[in-house]
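If I may wish for something, please walk me through the protein I am sending here so I can picture the backbone:
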Amino acid sequence: MLRWIDVLKFAKYSNPEPREREEKTDEEWQQKLTPEQYNVMRQKGTESPYRNAYCRSYEPGIYTCVGCGTLLFNATEKYHAISGWPSFTQPSTKGAIKYMFDDSHNMQRIEVQCNTCDSHLGHVFNDGPVPHGLRYCINSASIQRVDLENDHE
Protein backbone atom coordinates (compact mmCIF):
# COMPACT_ATOMS: atom_id res chain seq x y z
CA MET A 1 0.00 0.00 0.00
CA LEU A 2 1.25 3.43 -0.90
CA ARG A 3 1.71 6.15 1.70
CA TRP A 4 2.14 9.92 1.32
CA ILE A 5 5.94 9.58 1.63
CA ASP A 6 5.90 7.17 -1.34
CA VAL A 7 3.89 9.65 -3.42
CA LEU A 8 6.35 12.45 -2.59
CA LYS A 9 9.34 10.27 -3.50
CA PHE A 10 7.77 9.31 -6.84
CA ALA A 11 7.01 12.95 -7.66
CA LYS A 12 10.46 14.17 -6.64
CA TYR A 13 12.78 11.42 -7.86
CA SER A 14 11.30 8.88 -10.25
CA ASN A 15 7.92 7.34 -11.01
CA PRO A 16 7.33 3.59 -11.18
CA GLU A 17 8.01 2.04 -14.56
CA PRO A 18 4.80 1.46 -16.51
CA ARG A 19 4.03 -2.02 -17.82
CA GLU A 20 3.71 -0.50 -21.29
CA ARG A 21 3.51 2.89 -22.99
CA GLU A 22 0.87 4.27 -25.34
CA GLU A 23 1.68 7.33 -27.40
CA LYS A 24 -0.71 9.25 -29.66
CA THR A 25 -0.47 12.47 -31.58
CA ASP A 26 -2.57 15.41 -30.46
CA GLU A 27 -4.80 14.85 -33.51
CA GLU A 28 -5.31 11.18 -32.57
CA TRP A 29 -6.28 12.19 -29.01
CA GLN A 30 -8.81 14.72 -30.35
CA GLN A 31 -10.37 12.02 -32.53
CA LYS A 32 -10.50 9.45 -29.72
CA LEU A 33 -11.79 11.63 -26.87
CA THR A 34 -14.91 13.76 -26.40
CA PRO A 35 -14.25 17.50 -26.06
CA GLU A 36 -14.66 17.27 -22.26
CA GLN A 37 -12.36 14.24 -22.01
CA TYR A 38 -9.77 15.98 -24.19
CA ASN A 39 -9.94 19.12 -22.02
CA VAL A 40 -9.45 17.13 -18.81
CA MET A 41 -7.01 14.47 -19.98
CA ARG A 42 -4.79 16.33 -22.43
CA GLN A 43 -5.17 19.98 -21.34
CA LYS A 44 -5.28 19.27 -17.59
CA GLY A 45 -8.76 20.72 -17.15
CA THR A 46 -11.17 19.95 -14.33
CA GLU A 47 -14.78 18.90 -14.71
CA SER A 48 -17.57 20.44 -12.63
CA PRO A 49 -17.81 19.14 -9.07
CA TYR A 50 -20.77 16.95 -8.08
CA ARG A 51 -22.13 16.93 -11.65
CA ASN A 52 -19.94 14.16 -13.00
CA ALA A 53 -20.57 10.50 -13.74
CA TYR A 54 -18.85 8.80 -10.80
CA CYS A 55 -19.05 11.30 -7.92
CA ARG A 56 -21.98 9.48 -6.29
CA SER A 57 -21.52 6.04 -7.85
CA TYR A 58 -20.36 3.20 -5.60
CA GLU A 59 -21.10 0.13 -7.73
CA PRO A 60 -18.62 -2.75 -7.77
CA GLY A 61 -16.10 -3.02 -10.57
CA ILE A 62 -12.83 -1.50 -11.69
CA TYR A 63 -11.94 1.89 -13.13
CA THR A 64 -9.78 2.13 -16.21
CA CYS A 65 -8.20 5.02 -18.12
CA VAL A 66 -10.45 6.31 -20.90
CA GLY A 67 -7.38 7.00 -23.02
CA CYS A 68 -5.71 3.60 -23.01
CA GLY A 69 -7.74 1.15 -20.90
CA THR A 70 -5.11 0.74 -18.16
CA LEU A 71 -6.55 -0.48 -14.86
CA LEU A 72 -6.23 2.44 -12.43
CA PHE A 73 -8.51 1.83 -9.42
CA ASN A 74 -10.68 -0.85 -7.84
CA ALA A 75 -14.16 0.17 -6.70
CA THR A 76 -13.34 -1.30 -3.28
CA GLU A 77 -10.93 1.64 -2.78
CA LYS A 78 -13.58 4.26 -3.63
CA TYR A 79 -15.10 6.25 -0.78
CA HIS A 80 -17.37 9.22 -0.13
CA ALA A 81 -14.97 12.14 0.38
CA ILE A 82 -17.48 14.97 -0.19
CA SER A 83 -14.99 16.58 -2.56
CA GLY A 84 -17.24 16.71 -5.63
CA TRP A 85 -15.17 14.18 -7.56
CA PRO A 86 -14.67 10.42 -7.28
CA SER A 87 -12.16 9.66 -4.53
CA PHE A 88 -10.03 6.57 -4.04
CA THR A 89 -7.62 5.54 -1.28
CA GLN A 90 -5.16 3.53 -3.40
CA PRO A 91 -4.40 2.86 -7.07
CA SER A 92 -4.84 -0.67 -8.41
CA THR A 93 -1.06 -1.17 -8.60
CA LYS A 94 1.99 0.87 -7.67
CA GLY A 95 2.84 1.34 -11.36
CA ALA A 96 -0.62 2.44 -12.56
CA ILE A 97 -0.18 6.10 -11.64
CA LYS A 98 2.46 8.72 -12.42
CA TYR A 99 3.03 11.61 -9.96
CA MET A 100 4.02 15.18 -10.83
CA PHE A 101 4.37 18.35 -8.74
CA ASP A 102 1.72 20.89 -9.83
CA ASP A 103 2.04 24.56 -8.83
CA SER A 104 -0.78 25.79 -11.08
CA HIS A 105 -3.64 27.99 -9.82
CA ASN A 106 -1.46 29.31 -6.97
CA MET A 107 -1.63 25.94 -5.19
CA GLN A 108 0.95 23.28 -4.43
CA ARG A 109 -0.49 19.88 -5.31
CA ILE A 110 0.55 16.55 -6.74
CA GLU A 111 -1.00 15.77 -10.10
CA VAL A 112 -1.74 12.16 -10.98
CA GLN A 113 -1.52 10.89 -14.54
CA CYS A 114 -2.06 7.53 -16.17
CA ASN A 115 1.41 5.98 -16.20
CA THR A 116 0.73 4.35 -19.57
CA CYS A 117 -0.52 7.28 -21.70
CA ASP A 118 0.28 10.35 -19.53
CA SER A 119 -3.37 11.44 -19.40
CA HIS A 120 -4.25 13.84 -16.60
CA LEU A 121 -6.51 12.13 -14.05
CA GLY A 122 -6.66 14.57 -11.13
CA HIS A 123 -4.65 15.05 -7.94
CA VAL A 124 -3.68 13.13 -4.81
CA PHE A 125 -3.86 14.61 -1.32
CA ASN A 126 -2.74 13.47 2.13
CA ASP A 127 -6.14 14.01 3.80
CA GLY A 128 -7.67 10.61 3.06
CA PRO A 129 -8.90 7.98 5.50
CA VAL A 130 -6.69 5.85 7.72
CA PRO A 131 -4.60 3.78 7.59
CA HIS A 132 -2.71 5.29 4.62
CA GLY A 133 -4.25 8.77 4.45
CA LEU A 134 -4.37 9.12 0.66
CA ARG A 135 -7.20 10.71 -1.33
CA TYR A 136 -6.96 10.35 -5.09
CA CYS A 137 -9.38 13.00 -6.37
CA ILE A 138 -10.12 11.93 -9.94
CA ASN A 139 -12.06 13.48 -12.83
CA SER A 140 -14.87 11.17 -14.00
CA ALA A 141 -14.10 12.23 -17.58
CA SER A 142 -10.74 10.45 -17.40
CA ILE A 143 -11.98 7.07 -16.11
CA GLN A 144 -14.58 4.47 -16.99
CA ARG A 145 -16.09 1.90 -14.65
CA VAL A 146 -16.03 -1.69 -15.87
CA ASP A 147 -18.55 -4.06 -14.30
CA LEU A 148 -16.70 -7.30 -13.56
CA GLU A 149 -19.96 -9.24 -13.16
CA ASN A 150 -20.60 -9.06 -16.92
CA ASP A 151 -17.15 -10.40 -17.73
CA HIS A 152 -17.98 -13.77 -16.15
CA GLU A 153 -21.10 -14.50 -18.24
Q: What stands out?
A: Residues 4-148 form a domain with the Metal Binding Protein, Guanine Nucleotide Exchange Factor; Chain A fold (CATH 2.170.150.20).
